[in-house]
Amino acid sequence: MSDSLLQPVGEDALLTATRAIVDADLKRLTVEIDLEGTYPEAVLRNLGGVGAFAQHLPAVRADGAGDLGLAIKAMAGVSHECLSTGFCMWCQDTVGWYLQNAEGSAIRDLWLPKIATAEVLGGTGMSNTMKAFAEIEPLRLKGQRVDGGYVVNGSLPWVSNLGDDHVFGTLFALDGEGDRTVMALVDCASEGFSLRQSAHFTALEGTRTFACIFENVFVPDAMIIDHDGKGFLRRARAGLVLLQFGMGVGNIQSCIDMSREVEPLLGHVNRYLDDRPDQLQQELDDAVEAVLALAEDPFETSDEFFREILELRLAAGELAIRASQSAMLHTGAKGYLRSAPAQRKLRESYFIAIVTPAIKHLRKELEVLAAAA
């Protein structure tokens, strides 16, 4: 991979470059992305070009280091403007994280530089996996061992940031082999694989979210991330969930900023509302400090460490709903217009609360961890 190693980008330089892309490329598209479902592909490619998807990937950086906190901050800067684009960033960051945590170096060396630079875009088909391991639903993909790889059948209802030339990470069970699972990188151009537009959403419509249909799809050994899916998920789970905070932080901060913007005009009456901007800001600042501290060690695998992450993730989902409702009430009737940011942020915040792991999923996981302690 030596020829593909990327020079590290300083925090100030990366966040400045990210803001420039938001200002020049994204802001003019935000309403179109929200209301018409436009996919922000050019924005994602540009973000890859400035290094936004490479900071948390030691294997692709010339210094061999990783800064998951900086990846979270870059995603927050984009999510502050548009959560659809922020969510696509999370998908891209996460498929890179899967490759970073791959069992062997061959798949990592081949694919990680392409993902880190957004030469190839990709998604994460792990919602079903996380729910299955939490005993919420069964695994939807089944594989059989064949010469040189696996044949996979089944379907995933919703996977995002996809297209015919995209890839995504997912996990499948092996028929007749107990609870053994395999983690793989799937090429959307594979024979027998198809994408279907099965639903339209009230928010996050611009995220290229499809149903993924596997009909005797051959997944070669070269595309296997780990032959032990359970072991892989334990290694990768902390970073996977920590990265989601980029979406939540951006959404919450934008709601707080929106409430503050109307203070000169409406502060005299908004003072009667609950969840005032300063109160929410303090809660957000405390959460961000805790998240960035945990992000310094994303390869930690202990249950206690993961419990702390889940508690913060739960708090972020709840805070996003409170902050967006506050922004709606603070901005009043103007926030209720079809193109108004406040009502969009409200719809986006519920995505933060229901995207896997959802609030109810988090509470279930925390109960199980508490019982096992």
Write down how many β-strands occur, each being a DSSP E stretch of 2 or more residues. Answer: 8
C-alpha Rg, in Å?
A: 20 Å
- Named CATH architecture of the largest domain: Up-down Bundle
Fourth-tier CATH superfamily name of the largest domain: Butyryl-CoA Dehydrogenase, subunit A, domain 3
Supply the number of helical segments.
14
Helix coverage percent of residues? 40-55%
Topology record:
Blueprint: H1 11-26, H2 30-36, H3 41-49, H4 68-79, H5 83-100, H6 105-116, E1 122-125, H7 127-133, E2 141-146, E3 149-159, E4 167-174, E5 181-187, E6 193-196, E7 210-220, E8 224-226, H8 229-243, H9 245-261, H10 263-270, H11 277-294, H12 303-331, H13 341-354, H14 359-372
Parallel strand pairs: 1-4, 2-4
Antiparallel strand pairs: 2-3, 3-7, 4-5, 5-8, 6-7
Helix pairs in contact: 1-3, 1-4, 4-5, 4-9, 5-6, 5-8, 5-9, 8-12, 9-11, 9-12, 9-13, 11-12, 12-13, 12-14
List keywords for this structure.
373 residues; alpha+beta; Butyryl-Coa Dehydrogenase, subunit A, domain 1; Butyryl-CoA Dehydrogenase, subunit A, domain 2; Butyryl-CoA Dehydrogenase, subunit A, domain 3; 3 domains; eight-stranded mixed β-sheet; 14 helices
Written account of the structure:
By secondary structure, this protein is an alpha+beta fold. It folds into three domains: 2-121, Acyl-CoA dehydrogenase/oxidase, N-terminal domain (Butyryl-Coa Dehydrogenase, subunit A, domain 1); 125-228, Beta Barrel (Butyryl-CoA Dehydrogenase, subunit A, domain 2); 244-372, Butyryl-CoA Dehydrogenase, subunit A, domain 3, CATH 1.20.140.10. Helices cover 53% and strands 14% of the residues. The protein contains 14 helices and eight strands. Strands 1, 2, 3, 4, 5, 6, 7 and 8 form an eight-stranded mixed β-sheet that branches. α4 crosses α9 and α9 runs antiparallel to α11 (277-294). It is globular, with a radius of gyration of 20 Å.
